[in-house]
Every structure is written in C-alpha cells, then in structure tokens.
Amino acid sequence: MEDKKRILIIEDESSICDILSYAFRKEGYLVKCAFKGKDGLSRVEGFSPDVIILDLMLPDISGFDVCKEITAKYKIPIIMLTARSDIIDKVLGLELGADDYITKPFDIREVTARVKTAFRRMENLRETLSNRQMVYINDHVNIDKKAMTVYKDGVEVKLKPKEYELLLLFCENKDKVLTREEILDRVWGLDYEGGLRTVDVHVQRIRKKLDVEGAPSIIDTVFGIGYKMSCRS
Ligand code: CA
Asked: 101: which residues sit within 8 A by CB, 6+ positions away?
C-alpha cells in the first residue's frame, strides 16, 4: 500500500498553488489545491491531509476562520501563508491553532523545510501516543501492546498466542465477568470444537505464568459462570 504524505493547499492565487504543488510533488507528496476557504474545508474530510497550507486572505472566508474550523475538528498541522507580517496576525493565528507561518514572498525551500518539520512533529506525537500502549494489570504484570510483550516484575514472560489473546480480552473487560462460552467464542471462534475445557486450561496457564506468590491471582474464578480480571491498580 502506498503511504504518500498528503498536503492540502488552500490558496486562491493559482500561481502560488502551482509553485507549491510542483515542489511538493517533486518531494513525492500527494497534493490537492482548493482556491476557496469553503472548498478547502470540504476537502479535509475526504482527502485527509497530513498537513495543510492555508492562505490567510481568501475570497470567501478568512484563513483564520478556516483554521478555527479545522483545528476544532482535526489534529492536522496547519502552516499559514500570509502576505502580512504584522505580529498581531501571528499571535491571533497561533491562538487559533496554526502550527507555523510563512510570510509571502517565500522561498520554496523554506516551505518544504517547514512541511517536513510539521511531519516530524506529527510523527513524534504519534510515537508518544503509541508508547502509551503500556497496560498495567497489577503491581507486577504489565503488557506492552505495541511489542505484544508481557512482563512480570520487569521480566519478559513468554505467552502462547492464544494465552496472549485471552489476557488482552480480560484486560479489555476489566471487572466484567466473562462466561466460558463467551471467552471461547471470542478467542477461539465459533467453529472451534475444543470445548470449554480449553478456556480453563488457558486460564490455568496464564495464572501459572503470571501469578505472584502471596498475591491475588491475575484472573478470578466466578464460580459456575466464568472468569474475571479485577481492577487492582
Ligand atoms: Ca490570497
């Protein structure tokens, strides 16, 4: 699958659109231009750009209004283009959520450099978010969902794929009683013919691997019904 970065340019001066589009395409980006603010807004949803270059002076609505609307709904970096270099505009724009500014007339290399910076910032943000994929089950056990690795007191514990899936299912349903039928269905699928004992066996294995002596088990038995993972953190 192609993973080209997408740039939406909202700018009514077609010569500027052309220069920018040309430069961005040369960098390997996908580019779309909108000549009016409203067109630009309507394109955000379908095109889902990674960055937006937004002119301040547009024929229908102002770039500030466009900026305000976009930042209210999306987390897309916006680089504003403006012929006016007055500081008031810059401050106002920053409050509205624009990420960067470029003053006209601009050097095209400057623009592509700023776009790259915006991409980098977004990637850093994404990385920070995905690093939060660490799930703490109790004082001893945690899961790094990104790396699909389970740790007990900081030491990696090898789980079989189904054990891992089962553990995740419990994590996603903390404090909720899951029946053995439900567990079998969700981890092994409807066609599985192994029977409910499979669930018991896997729960036992998880406990054996992850329980800590003297502490409550990671998974509670709910007698006659099924199992549950309690919130202990
Ligand atoms: Ca303009």
From this structure: 79, 80, 82, 90, 93
The rounded Å distance from CA 66 to ligand 1 centre is 13
Give me the average pLDDT of each 10-residue run along the chain (233 residues). 84 95 96 97 93 93 90 86 68 66 87 90 73 80 87 92 92 92 88 83 95 92 93 63
Contacts of 65 (CB under 8 A, 6+ apart): 37
Q: Which long-range contacts (CB under 8 A, 24 or more apart) does 213-218 make?
A: 215/138, 215/139, 215/140, 218/137, 218/138, 218/141
Cβ neighbors of 34 (< 8 A, separation 6 or more) are 8, 9, 10, 11, 40, 43
- Measured in angstroms, how far is the CA atom of residue 62 from the centroid of ligand 1? 9
pTM over 0.70: no
CB 99 within 8 A of CB 77: yes
Q: How far apart are CA 126 and CA 233, in angstroms?
A: 26
Are 44 and 70 spatial neighbours (Cβ–Cβ below 8 Å)?
A: yes
CA of 30 to the centre of ligand 1 (A): 22
Nearest-CA neighbor of 17 among 32, 6, 27?
32
The domains of the chain, with CATH numbers, are 6-130 (3.40.50.2300), 134-228 (1.10.10.10)
Residue type, 177: V
- DSSP assignment, residue 3? -
> Alpha-carbon distance 154 to 136, whole Å?
11
